[in-house]
Amino acid sequence: MRILLTNDDGINAPGIKAMWRELIKLGEVIVVAPETVQSATGHGITIATPLLTSEVEEPDGYKGIAVDGRPADCVKVAINQLIPGPVDLVVSGMNSGVNVGINVIYSGTVAAAIEAAFLGLPSIAVSLHLDHEIKTDYARAARWGRETIEKILALGLGKGQVASINLPALRETHEPLGVKVVRQCIQPWVDTYEQRRDPRGRKYYWNNSIFTLGETEDDTDVAAIREKYITVTPLQFDLTNYLTLKKWQEAW
Questions:
Q1: Is residue 174 in some structural domain?
Q2: What is the C-alpha to C-alpha distance for residues 158 and 155, in angstroms, rounded to an integer?
Q3: What is the pLDDT of residues 180-207, one digit of tens each?
Q4: CA 19 to chain CA centroid, nearest Å
Q5: How many folded domains does the chain comprise?
Q6: What is the DSSP string of 8-22?
């Protein structure tokens, strides 16, 4: 199996390195990831400036190509130019921070996986919930991620299909309660902004929101992560509202 591994935290982030160490157990892993942190960049791509690339290689065998662009850029240029031959699976992550609820829309991690699906490839986004009271163990979380990926592949992940895995934050003596296949929470998240003034007296606003796993319906990704389950959510990029489409077509 040939796997393209990317992320939105940057090619030197601990999450992608931990994921690489687990995925090499499944086959050949080719890393093409952003040169710098691209969190919350969504599905943006670079069209007005060139995409500069550089090679990264470390003593433990971790190597890849850093792209001076966004996560979706990395997938596009990797498939089009950087990787000779076929790719069997695209994995994006492991992200430092959970991507559940409306975060799925903003996430560069999920955007990279969806870009791969655009291109007709099976893809999986992997994200890890961070809790400031719990020490982050990327190696252990990556193992959970790889095991969950193997289960998804065994069940069947076709061309152009995408799944999102979220891993809970757990203390070293605890294990996930299991895996739940759940829907994306769609409850709104209200951002908060702090008003400030620059040295010239001009007003500016700083987004000081901190995402929390709030109360929601029991069958959602937010609820399952809060309860310490690994979550799996199949996603799609077709935004058509088919119920309204049918209604309007019949009435037009």
A1: yes
A2: 10
A3: 999 999 988 778 899 999 999 999 999 9
A4: 12
A5: 1
A6: SS-TT-HHHHHHHHH
